[in-house]
Design goal:
The structure is a homodimer. Chain A has about 350 residues and is α/β, with parallel strands linked by helices. Chain A folds into two domains: about 1-120 and about 290-320, Isopropylmalate Dehydrogenase, CATH 3.40.718; about 125-280, 3-Layer(aba) Sandwich (Isopropylmalate Dehydrogenase), CATH 3.40.718. Chain A has helices spanning about 15-30, 40-50, 55, 75-80, 85-95, 110-120, 155-170, 195-205, 230-255, 260-280, 280-285, 305-320, 325-340, and strands at about 5-10, 35-40, 60-65, 100-105, 130-135, 140-145, 180, 210-215, 225-230, 290, 295-300. Chain A has an eleven-stranded mixed β-sheet, sandwiched between helices. In chain A, helix 1 packs across helix 12 (about 305-320), helix 5 packs parallel to helix 6 and helix 7 (about 155-170) packs across helix 13. Chains A and B meet through helix 9 and helix 10 of A and helix 9 and helix 10 of B. Chains A, B: Pathway: Lipid metabolism; phospholipid metabolism.
Chain lengths: ~350, ~350
């Protein structure tokens, strides 16, 4: 039986152990070969696992960590000062091959900085990328990268994002995914110098199924399976969508204080919209992956619920089983060989 | 009585005269000093105004234009070949001072290219910007620029966007608006080189109420009154939000085919959500303004309804009354004087 050990940053996120531990226990019950090394404050963690079945307890190791990276902490400071934090120790476990993946709902910037520092890049990879799957209305998924790991990306970095995204879709059994470059228009003459140069590179690479430029609204259509962009654009677009979703929910809430029909509408609409929102909120859907490193790192949304955090853990299991880092390493090596 | 003449591109948009003319007639009835020069195919326009009151007819001049810029036409080709189009003639009227503003629901790229070519920039302005007001849930408006006129912007261009946006909010009686720069995080160390350099420029400019970096979700909060960004980011973020809104409406439509409770929900929710969507869809809210030119150009969304197109016309009236181009010219001149 293959080793399936996940290092869990139990302290990360807005809720910490009360969300991360119950989520972990439920996933543990579903995957008999799974083990957790749970990193964090043992005084908060142990009481939450004391009463569970022995068969589950045997597959949990608690590693006490005296430090926590707070949500507002500067990445550079966390990197320097928080070497005993649950986040850092979880990443160290992956680096030491004691775990195959790390899952954290903690401070994104700190996680990126620490993962980059601890795990290092795969050979030939220029920059890591944060990627997530956006579910569209029809059940289709679009993988979007980068969502904020790199604010400035040249065409070669975007090309590597396309290769990494292409590997990632294999885990949902999608070979030869349609790759699009996010742009301000679909015509070839549109866009920045970088997007035009990236378009040439992707078109030349016969290992990729490049379909051309796509626009912002195509994040939610089924035009492409993988959409590449620099982390500045990806981050702003995702957060703008989050902001819109919240604003719509607020608007409907305010209806509840108007007349009786509005009240009825709000009472029916709110739970359903919130469910939709959770489904469409990419960070909460199944966790974002940090690609390009020598190890698997899954970032869950900070205010993820137990259900959402379970998705993030399952995403880690999926990537372990599909050996995502190894395959990315091979694909990039192949691309470099082809070019030379 | 001040002259208030608007050149109307009657042919622009997905619907053309059946939407633009009824919208114009309703606005005409509300503003007794308003005149229209309606540009387009007289055979389509004249029948739509034949039956109206003489007092309104006297304030409409129809200028027959044999050409139309189509929605999918390349801007460069439109600029070269469509000198007799309703769009081009409307802009010419502004350039010749026969009209104070032009309103069009036509091809955005062609309108930008033609407006830039026909009207020219105000002295000292580096690049024009497309701006619109995004209404947040609480009735607050955030002006966002640029939405796609310029894909690459350096810090000096972003600084001018801040000055232009600051002038624009005066027309809603908001002095000293809070200006934010769109970024991937709020901390000063976050972002691209351009955003950091722009932050320094905006902070140094004591004529601006610069509040720092804002994030994508702040497009829908009341944190800032004016948010500046390059046109690539602005365009992608807006279109992503449009895509999300459409996807949510599609999701709810699909509920209507499930069980009876879903059917009831969908029947109640859809009209209300569509209304919300129209309110929050920035292009349809009140038209986007092209700032920085020697004249007023308002771009309405291509598939605007009559109501939405009326907003665009009213936006033009507002900008004429507030002498937006003159004030922008003065503000930029002042900024250039202060620096020298």
């Amino acid at each position: 039986m293959a080793n399936l050990t996940i290092a869990l940053d139990a302290m990360g996120g807005d809720h910490g152990p009360p969300v991360t531990i119950p989520a972990a226990l439920e996933v543990l019950a579903e995957y008999p070969q799974l083990k957790f090394i749970v990193c964090g404050d043992k005084y908060q963690i142990v009481p939450l696992i004391n009463d569970i079945a022995l068969s589950l307890q045997q597959r949990i190791e608690v590693l006490h960590c005296p430090q926590v990276v707070s949500m507002g902490e500067k990445p550079s400071q966390a990197l320097r000062n928080k070497t005993q934090s649950s986040m850092r120790v979880s990443l160290d476990l992956v680096q030491e091959n004691r775990a195959q993946a790390c899952v954290s709902a903690g401070n994104t910037g700190a996680l990126l900085a620490m993962a980059y520092y601890v795990l290092k890049m795969l050979p030939g990879i220029k920059r890591p990328a944060l990627v997530t799957a956006i579910p569209s209305a029809k059940g289709h998924r679009t993988y979007v990268l980068d969502l904020g790991a790199n604010v400035e990306c040249d065409e070669h970095i975007l090309h590597q994002f396309a290769l990494m995204g292409s590997v990632l879709t294999e885990k949902i059994d999608l070979k030869n995914p349609r790759i699009g470059i996010l742009n301000v228009g679909e015509e070839e003459i549109k866009g920045s110098g970088t997007t035009k140069r990236a378009a040439r590179l992707l078109k030349e690479d016969k290992s990729l199924n490049y379909i051309g430029f796509v626009e912002g609204n195509d994040l939610f259509t089924d035009k492409a399976d993988v959409i590449v962009c620099d982390g500045f654009v990806g981050n702003v677009a995702m957060k703008a969508c989050e902001g819109l979703a919240k604003a719509v929910i607020e608007s409907i809430k305010s209806l509840a204080s108007e007349n009786w029909l509005s009240k009825v509408f709000a009472a029916i609409a709110l739970p359903m919209l919130k469910k939709l929102y959770r489904q469409m909120n990419p960070d909460q859907y199944n966790g974002a992956s940090l690609l390009g490193l020598r190890g698997i790192v899954i970032k869950s949304h900070g205010n993820a619920s137990k259900e959402a955090f379970k998705y993030a853990i399952e995403e880690a299991i999926n990537e372990i089983r599909h050996q995502v880092p190894e395959k990315i390493g091979n694909r990039i090596e192949q691309a470099l060989t082809d070019r030379s």
